[in-house]
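In pairs, describe these two lines:
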Amino acid sequence: MPTFYGAYTAPRGSTPPGLVDGSVQGGHVRVHREKITLAGQTPADTIVLAFPSAGETFLCGTITSDVSLGTSQVSIGIAGTPGKYRASAVHTLIDTPVNFGRAAAQATRLAADETVLLSIATAALPLAGTLIIDLYFAQS
């Protein structure tokens, strides 16, 4: 029966076996957590979440809130690509962590340092409450 390798484990299947990229196989996970006090922030506002470094690979993120964000749509990304990590969507679950991540962002290492932002697309955020965003990145 043949053995197949994925894109990241392929070096191990060569002769002699090669090294795998530590930012996607066997690397260290860094978490960037931001706690946001909701205060009616508007679609004109952006909130800085994290500063991942060049060479890191985005794994996934988690959004948790102690109140419903109602009809507010939020995205997570960078200037110029506001939905790089999470496309604009509502978040109405209370005290329930929800994972997010876009395949295109998970497939490549960061070429440069980034400033990750939360952007508000429609309707202001609630006047009170707490929003927690966790971003997980791997590094060699």
The longest helix spans residues 103-106.
